UniProtKB/TrEMBL annotation:
Its EC number is 3.5.1.-. It is an enzyme of class 3 (hydrolase). SUPFAM superfamilies: LmbE-like. Keywords: Hydrolase. The keyword Transmembrane does not apply. InterPro entries: GlcNAc_PI_deacetylase-related (IPR003737), LmbE-like_dom_sf (IPR024078). It comes from the Bacteria. GO terms for molecular function: hydrolase activity. Pfam families: PIG-L. This is N-acetyl-alpha-D-glucosaminyl L-malate deacetylase 2. The gene is bshB2_2.
Amino acid sequence: MNTTNKGTVKKLLAVFAHPDDESFICGGTLAKYASEGVDITLVSATRGDMGRRMGNPPYLNRETMAAAREIELRDACKCLGIQQLLFFDIRDKTVEFIDEESLTSRVEALIRDVNPDVVLTFHETLGGHPDHCAIGKATTAACQRTGHLDSLYFITFGDAMERPERFGYSHKDVMKIDVEAHLKAKLAAFRAHRCQTEIDEWVWLPDHEALAKFGRYEYFLKADRESSAKKRDNLF
Ligand SMILES: [Zn+2]
């Protein structure tokens, strides 16, 4: 088990926007820490009910999508070893319109409840989707209020942070996690999000071919850029 100095189980809180963010962006890292005994709580702010992918051939419609995506996310959580799943039940594609204070307060209450050792969320400007940026901004504010900023990391896309200078960061701000041993779990989680991945032919290739499409590393930005104590290859 992955434990703190006090002998208690380490905890990770991931606050994301949509079912699939956890698998597609940082599934290898979540699977890695779950396999080491870290207790993971995932929040999905929405149920992804406005998603444009309906399966291939389409088997969902606007009415059935939210329930289907919840089931698929629960399957993905099993693949990755995520133990707790919560929804904020915000309508998909409207997170940016939620009152900022009320959203921050919800995340703050959750942080105080879980008391995580590591928090993951989106960067408030590099998140790539308005829902991502909005939940990232609220989670960052909540971490500031609760004194968790030094354990907050922003998830990033692909290997973009191999060259962080392009985003105004330097290599010392980047955490690089080796997830090679956990790519099978990541692939299983991709496939669990069936309605989102069925149009991506590569996901359904034979395992060894599909696994070859993944990078070996997942990258995170430190929220607290002043902290230099931590190693770059481990979030804990
Ligand atoms: Zn998303």
